[in-house]
Amino acid sequence: MKSDELCYLTIAKASELIRERSLSPVELTQAYLDRIELLNPKLRSFITVSADIALAQAHQAGEEIAQRKYRGPLHGIPLSYKDLIETAEIRTTANSRVYADYLPEKNANVVTRLREAGAVTLGKANLCEFAFSDTSEDDLFKEARNPWNQQYQAGLSSNGSAVGVAAGLAAASIATDSGGSIRIPASYCGVTGLKPSYGLVGRTGVIPLSYSLDHVGTIARTVEDTALLLEVIAGYDSGDLASSRQAIPHYNKLLTGEIRGMRLGICPQYMQEVGVEDRVWVAFQHALDEFRSLGMAISEIELPSFSYGPAADFTILRIEGFQVHFRNLKQHREKYGVSAFHEIAVGGLLSASDYLRAQQARTLLADELSRALQGINVLLMPSTPASASGGTYHLKPPLEQKVAKDEISYLAPFDLTGTPALSICCGFTPEGLPIGLQLIGRGFDEVTILRIAQRYQEVTDFHRRQPPLESNASAIASSPRG
Amino acid sequence: MMRREFLGLLSAFGVAARASEPQSCILRGELDLPADISADLVRFSQFPLKQADWLKELPLDGIPLCFRYTPK
Question: How many beta-carbon contacts under 8 Å exist across A and B?
């Protein structure tokens, strides 16, 4: 198998080959490292590549498998981590000068779980500063670019994670979402991004944005790979006060259950309020047709308070973020980029009553969604109102516009409600940019959204398409050595 | 910046109503921002403050203040 083909294997397929010893973890890891060397200078997916550590871990995995100590489907699978997830012996910068030389002593809970499952750490994925800012000229590391067209944005904030998975630079990535930060880049890069239920995945060792909104989740190529990852990272974390003690189902085994007869909901009222680009609307309608042909019924619901969701999310995010950063803002203000400083420090201008009002709004939204989900199994929305746009970030809605018609509008409400939300690719624009579809489920019912999305990926091929990038083979052929 | 200067700055950007609120004072006093940075921040803050203000339109009477975020 060619090196490029190895880099686009799904986790499910790669693990099958590794288990039967037709593929070694070292061969797979080296293929990713070669491709990172080739493409990372252009795409900026990784802030830090931990090649030596990755190869050592891959060797260890290979030896264990040879000794019949196979740990499971992630054994020998190379992953990346958003660079605010702490990794022992690998610097964790949060793309900020404040943490430029930070070398954590311990792995984050989620890294520990994946290492115990045998996964290989390729390195640390790019993000905007503290996952908080728009990108700005003075960022420590410049933003990742969209692999489908480098003139376009890759999406805030887990952009390095999504770019890497889409470009074949990692089998999957672990990222975070507090207002859409997994699902925006997943949508713009055409990959599968899961924000699990609040509390399902422990956050110990993750540099926080916002205590009550932060979720750790996955970016992968397929729903099946997402299920394999979730099965390992979900579960109680004693270091996280919000961690749930829910029993963890066998997500992967439950993917193939019956979906015929399930009811899907759409919310035309909210879509009208937020707005949606024509071509995203068309792709959304095609997806609805696909679900109907799979035997599911579509019904309309109303979520009248959701217009206030983005405002409530950002109010809580900024106030909690200000508290998280207060000491550093005071001691190291000069180390913050302009954008991150503004986004975080503005939390100090918001009041206690703003915060409490936003938390009340959150309760209102959660109750509204809970009632709506009693009559349907899953809610469908576009992931973002439009596909990725060009240039760098300067998107801000007009000052007087009440409903934020921006890229978080379909996503942030579900960080507030804590319900699981998955973004999958449901089409491409005429320019070849991916379009995202979002499935939202009941609290802790990841199984249903994964099952429905899995059926969708079985009958469509959007998730299998690869961005037009230079191949490992062509680079070798054109090099002086080639 | 001194408190009076900061209040003037907030007022100039139409956010005077918030100047007496405790967090504004914390930001002004404890972060000890130079005037130019404070001006930038207050200018930037207009949209976030508007967003927070829109929440006042929601009928929140009787909605409990719940700090348990586990989804239903």
Answer: 137
Number of domains in chain B: 1
Q: Among candidates A153, A134, A63, which has minimal Cα distance to A314?
A: A134
* Residues constituting chain B: 72
Residue B62 covered by a domain: no
Contact B55 A311 (CB under 8 A): yes
Q: Which residues in B lie closer than 8 A to residue A368 (C-beta atoms)?
A: none
Question: Do residues A412 and A310 lie in contact, with contact meaning Cβ atoms separated by under 8 Å?
Answer: yes
State the Cα angle at A114 between A441 and A384, rounded to 5°. Answer: 35
Q: Tell me the average pLDDT across B36-57.
A: 83
Q: Does the model's pTM come out above 0.80?
A: yes
Instruction: Return the closest-CA partner of residue A244 out of B27, B68, B31.
Output: B68
In this prediction, residue A390 carries a pLDDT of 62
> What average pLDDT is seen over chain A?
93
Confidence of residue B31 (pLDDT cuts 50, 70, 90): confident
pLDDT for the residue numbered B10:
60
Tokens 């939300």 belong to residue: A421
Report d(CA A273, CA A405) in Å as an integer: 8
The partner residue sitting opposite A329, judged by closest CB among B22, B31, B46, is B31
Give the gap in angstroms from C-alpha A366 to the nearest C-alpha of chain B.
8
Domains identified in chain A, total number: 1
List the one residue out of A451, A74, A156, A131 whose CA is nearest residue A291: A451
Give chain B positions within 8 Å (CB) of A400: 50
- Structural domain including B44 reads 3-57
All residue ranges of chain A with pLDDT < 50 are 391-396, 479-482
A69 is catalytic: no
Please pick, among A3, A24, A82, A136, the residue that the annotation labels catalytic.
A82
Residues on chain B touching A397 (C-beta within 8 angstroms): 47
Q: Is residue B72 situated within a structural domain?
A: no
How far does the CA of residue A311 sit from the closest CA of chain B (Å)? 5
Domain membership flag for residue B42: yes
pLDDT of residue A475: 54
The predicted structure's pLDDT at residue A445: 97
Model confidence at B7: pLDDT above 50: yes
Could you tell me which of A405, A362, A415 has the C-alpha nearest to residue A384? A405
Chain B closest-CA separation from residue A2 CA (Å)? 45
Give the domain extent around A282: 3-478
What is the Cα–Cα distance from A181 to A131, expressed in whole angstroms? 8
Flag whether B69 is in a domain. Answer: no
Instruction: Based on the residue annotation, tell me whether A82 is a catalytic residue of this protein.
Output: yes
Whichever domain contains A39, its CATH number is 3.90.1300.10
**How high is the pLDDT of residue A477?**
53
The confidence score (pLDDT) of residue B32 equals: 73
Q: Which residues does chain A have within 8 Å of residue B54's beta carbon, measured at their own beta carbons?
A: 308, 311, 402
